[in-house]
Structures are given as structure tokens and as C-alpha cells.
Design brief:
Chain lengths: ~160, ~650
């Protein structure tokens, strides 16, 4: 084989692998991504039952109820709308009423969000970015949320919001 | 006083870095030996000053000086000493200081041990190293100074995020940074080669050990991080395809490709231009990782200390270094001489295939990590790309790579014999088929993919053994001679064997854990029994205990199997009063390579407590695999060939090039 042929083989091989990879990626992007919604977006967009999405918002204070065998139900609110959520399992350490939460699952026929995962990826000064952004967009952002009881001289721009 | 000295030392380090980034270049232009040697002394002095600055911050944390903002925000006087020290890098400012310290450490190592490098190459490498260092010193001094004082010092600190108060944190970030930042050396070498317009096999010989060191640390760092997440976050998961994890996986994939392509370059003087590109890409991905973690563009389990105003600065650094080096590459790379020829079926060909699959896999991870960001910026839609995406893209690309792994070392350089290699791998193929058949019979109707994946892993492991048997002519000649041959094999061969076998071992662990994991989730009361995978766990009782800076509720479980008492497990839930947050301390019981895992949930009014109990078969193999790989790396590093190094390259190369 000449140098040119060898190079051609190499390039063809590389292109074949890249094409396969591109096919895999496009296929996966079509099927396996999950969109994020807040309760009011759910109401606006009329998301049908069975479609998986991520629900984000604040856990409505006083809405948490524990049933038998680790079944829990609570409501997620974003200031405009609320959505009841049902979940079975152990809630994360940082789950608390009045705090931000992200749940993944789908709506059932009666309009209850059946979550199979509940994430509370935040500490007490932090709110999931999706939730914070969505709340801010709707003008329900509380500036004092997670404000530090600090006398710190360090510049702390938008601490609670973006951390 | 300590804070001001630390700050001052950092400013001095910046000044030294600025000198180091210009003077040696002028020296190289003028061929002035004295000016080129400035690089060496400034690199060593820089290391000294950064180390002083780092030690100053550690001392501030140890003495709990709450007049310093960084200490106030991340420490507490009651915190155990070990976490006072590890807390130094558990926050943004401190971890950036650790980052530059390690950068200076690597620069200092090149300066101290690079005596056999050609003078001008060393000057260029250290100058490029200093460009990176200057950028990051400026970043720290301008946007994230760890030595800022508070006007009215508080009496008590705000404590470190409880999740980070763990021994895993002591080890994981420094390891990871040693890996990330270690790739800066191969980057600097690549840019220096482009500036000089000269590159040869000797260059690859210098770059390979540095890349190998970085790769070993990165491998261990990722494994450590995964194990930490496994036992500390209390979900029993060990890899979440979280953007921050992906940020460390991408440089690892590119770095693994770089290790292999540098091998081709060193042995056969081929793939030069590609190796240079990979060096640049690997470090660029490390920078990208730093950006993703430190800028706060992503929210994830790991984003504990982030701030968007800093993001712009790191983004600038990112653009300047990646854009600059890639432009330099586009401009200078065509001038580099082409190297040796090889047939598609050859050791080189196999290594090219390896590179192809590794970089493509890296690209899919890249897309999966950045696509949600790009989509949010462009359309405002928020999506999450999780494990399903990566299972559908990353996994299929790794399968052909794993199949090819045993073939590579069996092929000859230049022109290989695929049929011969396949013949020598017959044993491995048979072993893998037997494993698949046995598993199929045993699980009967269960998961179909799992036996196939384990068969693949067995193929890789036995393939490695076949290669070793081939090299020592095992069973064909007397055993004693074979053993002597085995001792005589180059350490690099053993290194390859361990690293490749590690891949198979990790795959077995991953498949077993995900397929045959059994779990029990429920609320139980003291005296209740739970049955998981043939083990009986009895909750004996719950007790409260006071720790140094937390209160914890400890549950005591008696574990027995077939009526025989095995052990006692004590998972707990800790409540940290300062931050008002709690953590779950899982209890682990290791049986061989399998583990029982208990983590606690919330207690309820009637005295019951929610528990998660998992039985994870062969889960430890997931981490033994990377440890084996790293061990292989260490063996390869200790190979005589790399220790002796490449003597007198400059002249030898010139004659070589003339001969081409």
C-alpha cells in the first residue's frame, strides 16, 4: 500500500467511527433527555400523563404527609401554581419544607406527579439553579433567601441565588 | 500577620512567574545561556513562594483565625484537626491555591530534574508553564483571594459543609488536581515543540513519564472520588454521570489516548502531529473541568463552592489558552516532519484504533455534558442529560475498544499478523465463551447483556494472560526458564498487562453491581428483621451520641447468615448544629469483594426508622480495577527505559532528521 492509500484507510476508518458515534448521540438525545418544568409551566403546557420530566419548585410548607411503608406526599409550589407529588422511598438528607427540590417522574391520570427520584442537591444556603432561575423569572424571588448572618468583609454578590 | 505574609508570597510568586514567562523566551531567541537558565531558578523560587503561601493558609485554618474570611466561612473551632487541614481545599479559594501550588510543583520538578533536556526546550517548557501560572495567580489575587480579612472578626466560624468532613476529601481533590495539573507539563512540552518547530522521538520520551504520572494520579483520583460518593452520599451509587464527574473523566480519556499515541511516537517516530494535538486537548479538557467546577455554570452534587463572577475570568483563561494553543498548532503543525510508515494491521494501527475510540468516547461525554448548557443558552429550554444518554453512547463505543485491547500487544510493530494474534487469543476466546455459557445457565432468563459483558471482561483478562504466556513461552519450555523469562520482561510489559487487566476487572465489578444488586427499603422498628440476599439484619436499637461538632443517631444492626452471627453494623445520621444540616453515614460490611450497605433515612413518630439496605455483589472490583491500572502505570514508570531517559537527543535528532 502506498502512503496515500494507508492514509485513506485511516481516514475512512475514523469517519466510520465518528459517523457511528454521531448516530448514537443523536439517537440518545432523542430518547433519553428529560425536560425541566415548574408547576406553572406544567399547567400552561398541558404535559400529558406518562411523559417523564423534572419538576422543580419549593416544597409547600405544611404539605408533607407520610403514609405507610415510606410513602410520602407533598406539594411543590412556585408561587403561581402548586402540584401534588407522590413518592415512595427515603427523602434526601437536605429535603425540608419551604426549600427547593427537584423531582423526576411523570404525571398520572389524576394529575398527581409520581416521582421516582427526589433530588435535593443543595445545602441550606443553596437552591437548585433551575429552581432559582425559574422563580426569578416569575418575580417570586426572595432576596433574603439563604442570606448569610454574616459580618464578612468579603464581596458576596448574589450569594444565595447563584451558589 | 500570617495572612498578610501568605498574600505577599503569592504576589511575589506572580512576579516570578511573569519573569519566568518572558526572560527565558528572549534568552532562547538570543541563544543566551544565562537568560535561558533564569527559567530554572525562577521556577524553583516560584514553588518556594507558593508553598509558603499555601502553608500560611493551612496555618490560618489550623489556628482557627476567624478574622480571615475564608477561615470564618469554612471552619469551626470544634472541628477535628484533620478536617481543619482538609477544609483548606474544601472551598473555592483554597482549592484554587492548591491548584496553583501543584502547578508550581510540576514546574519545579521539571526545573530540578530536567537537566538532560536541551537548554532551549527546557526554557520554552518552563516559560509556557509560567504563562499558565501567571493567569491563575492573577485569577486568585483578583477574584478569589483566600487571605481577605474581616473588619469585625466573629468569634466562631460557619463550619465546613458536613458532607465534606470526611477522610475521602483529604485525598480526592489533591489526587485529582495532581492529575489535572500534571497534564500541563505535556501541554507545555507540546507548545514548546510547536514554538521550536522541532519534535522527535526523544521528545516523546520526556513527555511520556510526565503524562504517565498525571494519568496515574487522575486514575486514582477519579476512583477515590467515586468511592467517596458511594459511601458518603448514602445512595449507594458510585457514578452519576454528573457534569463534574464527566469533567474529570474527559481528561482521563484524552490522557489515556495520549499515553498510547506517545508510545507510537517514541517507538516509531510516527503520529507526531496527532500526539501534539492530543497533549493540547488533554490539558484543555483539564482547564474546561476547572472552569465547569469553579465557575458555577453547572449545578450538581459537587458544586459546593462556586460563584458566577469568577466564571468569566476562568472562561477568559480558557479561551486564551485553548484558542491560543490551537491557533499555534494550526500555524506550526504542518511544518513538523512526518514520521514512520505502518500498515493498518500493526501495533501502530491498533494504537490508532485505541485513540480513535477513546477520543470519540470522550467527544460523546463532551456533548452530553455541554449540550444542556448550549441548549439553555440558545433556546432557554432546560433539559437534563443523565445516565440513559451515556449508556446509549459511551457504552457501545467502549465495547469494540475492549474487544481490541488484547489484540494490540500481540501485534508486531510496522506490520502485524491479525490471524496469528487471533490464534494466540484462542484460549481467551474459549474462556470468555465458557464464562458466558455458565452465567447464562446460572441466571437462566435473567439479564441477557450481563453475561455477554462479563464474557468480554473475561476475554480482556485472559487475553492479557495469553500475551504474558506468549512472551514467556509458558508450557512450551521448562517452567523455570519461563519464570526467568518473566522476570526478564521489561517492566513496561507488566505495566501494560496490569493496566489492561484492570479494565476487565472494573468491568466485571460494574456489571455485577448494576445487574445483581439487591436492595431493601423500608421502615423498621427495633427488634425487626430485614432479609437481603440471604443475610438477616436485625435492628438492635437506636442510640444518640455526641460527636465533636455534631450529634448523631446510631443504629445497631446484627448481621447473620444461616443463623450464624457475622458482624455488627452501625450506620448513623449526623446532625451538624452549626449549619443545621445532616449527613448520612453509611455502614459497610465487606465480604470478599461484595459489600452490604446500610444507610438511614428519617425516623418516624412511632419509633420506626427508614433504612436502605443494599447487597452489592463484587462492587469492590469497580475500584480495584482502577487501582490495578494505576499500579500498572507505576510499573511502567519504573521501567529502565524511562529512568535512563533519552541521552543526548539534540545532536542525535539532527542527524536523524538529515537522514530522513
Amino acid at each position: 500500500m502506498t502512503r496515500k492509500q494507508r492514509r485513506l484507510t485511516l481516514i475512512c476508518g475514523a469517519l466510520a467511527v465518528l459517523a457511528i458515534a454521531a448516530g448514537l448521540v443523536l439517537n440518545a438525545l432523542r430518547d433519553s433527555i428529560v425536560f425541566f418544568s415548574t408547576p406553572s409551566m406544567v399547567a400552561e403546557k398541558h404535559i400529558g400523563p406518562g411523559k417523564r420530566f423534572r419538576l422543580g419548585g419549593l416544597v409547600q410548607p405544611g404539605s408533607l404527609e407520610r403514609g405507610d411503608n415510606l410513602a410520602v406526599s407533598f406539594s411543590v409550589a412556585d408561587g403561581t401554581a402548586t402540584l401534588p407529588v407522590a413518592y415512595k422511598g427515603i427523602l434526601p438528607d437536605l429535603f425540608r419544607e419551604g426549600q427547593g427540590v427537584v423531582a423526576e417522574g411523570s404525571l398520572d391520570a389524576s394529575g398527581v406527579f409520581r416521582a421516582d427520584t427526589v433530588l435535593a442537591k443543595h445545602d441550606e444556603t443553596y437552591m437548585p439553579k433551575d429552581v432559582a432561575d425559574a422563580l426569578k423569572k416569575q418575580g417570586h424571588w426572595k432576596d433574603d433567601y439563604g442570606a448569610k448572618p454574616s459580618a464578612s468583609a468579603a464581596p458576596q454578590p448574589a450569594q444565595g441565588a447563584m451558589r | 500577620m500570617i495572612a498578610e505574609s501568605g498574600h505577599y508570597a503569592l504576589v511575589l510568586a506572580l512576579a516570578l512567574a511573569l519573569i519566568q514567562s518572558t526572560v527565558p523566551l528572549i534568552g532562547a531567541r538570543w541563544r543566551d545561556v544565562a537568560l535561558m537558565n533564569v527559567a530554572r531558578s525562577t521556577a524553583l523560587m516560584q514553588l518556594l513562594f507558593v508553598a509558603a503561601s499555601f502553608v500560611a493558609l493551612v496555618m490560618l485554618h489550623v489556628t482557627s483565625d476567624f478574622s480571615v474570611a475564608n477561615v470564618y466561612e469554612n471552619s469551626h473551632s470544634l472541628k477535628p484537626l484533620i478536617y481543619k487541614i482538609t477544609g483548606v481545599w474544601g472551598n473555592h479559594e483554597g482549592s484554587m491555591l492548591l491548584w496553583v501550588s501543584i502547578l508550581a510543583l510540576f514546574g519545579g520538578l521539571v526545573a530540578a530534574f530536567g537537566n538532560n533536556l536541551p537548554l532551549s526546550l527546557r526554557a520554552h517548557v518552563l516559560a509556557v508553564q509560567a504563562w499558565i501560572a501567571s493567569a491563575f495567580y492573577l485569577f486568585i489575587l483578583i477574584t478569589s483571594n483566600p487571605f481577605l480579612r474581616i473588619v469585625n472578626p466573629p468569634i466562631e466560624g460557619r463550619d465546613l459543609n458536613p458532607v465534606l468532613q470526611d477522610i475521602g476529601l483529604a485525598v480526592h481533590p489533591p489526587m485529582l488536581y495532581l492529575g489535572y495539573v500534571g497534564f500541563s507539563i505535556s501541554f507545555s512540552f507540546a507548545v514548546a515543540a510547536l514554538i521550536e518547530g522541532r519534535i522527535d522521538a526523544a521528545w516523546a520520551r520526556w513527555v511520556r513519564p510526565w503524562t504517565l504520572v498525571a494519568w496515574i494520579f487522575l486514575t486514582l483520583g477519579i476512583a477515590m472520588g467515586s468511592y467517596w460518593a458511594y459511601y458518603e452520599l448514602g445512595w449507594g451509587g458510585w457514578w452519576f454521570w454528573d457534569p463534574v464527574e464527566n469533567a474529570s473523566l474527559m481528561p482521563w480519556l484524552a490522557g489515556t489516548a495520549l499515553l498510547h499515541s506517545a508510545l507510537v511516537m517514541e517507538k516509531r517516530n510516527a503520529l507526531k502531529v496527532w500526539t501534539i494535538l492530543l497533549s493540547i486537548l488533554t490539558f484543555s479538557l483539564s482547564l474546561l473541568g476547572t472552569f465547569l467546577v469553579r465557575s458555577g455554570v453547572l449545578t450538581s452534587v459537587h458544586a459546593f463552592a462556586t460563584d458566577p463572577t469568577r466564571g468569566v475570568f476562568i472562561l477568559l483563561i480558557l479561551c486564551v489558552f485553548i484558542g491560543g494553543s490551537l491557533s499555534l498548532y494550526a500555524w506550526r503543525a504542518p511544518a513538523l516532519k512526518r514520521g514512520g510508515l505502518f500498515a493498518p494491521i500493526s501495533r501502530e494501527g491498533a494504537l490508532v484504533l485505541n485513540n480513535l475510540f477513546l477520543t470519540t468516547a470522550c467527544a460523546t461525554v463532551f456533548i452530553g455534558t455541554l449540550y444542556p448548557l448550549a441548549l439553555e443558552v440558545l433556546t432557554g429550554d432546560k433539559i437534563s442529560v443523565g445516565a440513559p444518554f451515556f449508556n446509549l453512547t459511551f457504552a457501545p463505543l467502549f465495547v469494540p475498544l475492549m474487544i481490541a485491547v488484547p489484540f494490540g500487544p500481540l501485534l508486531a510493530w510496522k506490520r502485524g499478523d491479525l490471524l496469528g494474534a487471533a490464534q494466540r487469543l484462542t484460549a481467551a476466546g474459549l474462556a470468555s465463551l465458557v464464562a458466558i455459557a455458565l452465567l447464562w445457565a446460572w441466571t437462566r432468563g435473567g439479564a441477557t447483556l450481563a453475561p455477554l459483558a462479563i464474557g468480554l471482561a473475561v476475554f480482556v483478562i485472559v487475553g492479557v494472560l495469553c500475551d504474558l504466556a506468549e512472551r514467556t513461552a509458558l508450557l512450551r519450555i521448562p517452567l523455570s526458564i519461563s519464570l526467568r523469562r518473566a522476570r526478564g520482561l521489561p517492566r513496561a510489559v507488566w505495566g501494560t498487562a496490569f493496566a489492561h487487566a484492570g479494565l476487565g476487572v472494573a468491568l466485571i465489578g460494574i456489571v455485577c453491581e448494576t445487574t445483581w444488586n439487591s436492595e431493601y427499603i423500608g421502615a423498621i422498628k427495633p427488634g425487626d428483621l430485614a432479609n437481603v440476599a440471604g443475610y438477616q439484619l436485625k435492628l438492635d436499637g437506636l442510640t444518640q451520641r455526641q460527636g465533636p461538632n455534631f450529634r448523631e443517631m446510631v443504629a445497631k444492626f446484627t448481621v447473620s447468615r444461616d443463623g450464624e452471627k457475622l458482624s455488627v453494623m452501625t450506620p448513623s445520621k449526623r446532625n451538624f448544629t452549626t449549619r443545621g444540616s445532616s449527613t448520612t453515614e453509611a455502614a459497610l460490611l465487606t465480604r470478599g469483594a461484595s459489600q452490604l450497605y446500610i444507610s438511614l433515612g428519617d425516623g418516624s413518630a412511632d419509633g420506626a426508622i427508614a433504612v436502605r439496605i443494599y447487597h452489592k455483589p463484587l462492587v469492590l472490583l469497580i475500584w480495584w480495577g482502577p487501582v490495578l491500572m494505576a499500579f500498572g502505570g507505576v510499573l511502567s514508570l519504573s521501567d529502565r527505559r524511562l529512568r535512563v531517559g533519552a541521552p543526548k537527543p539534540a545532536r542525535a535528532t539532527r542527524t536523524l532528521q538529515a537522514a530522513e
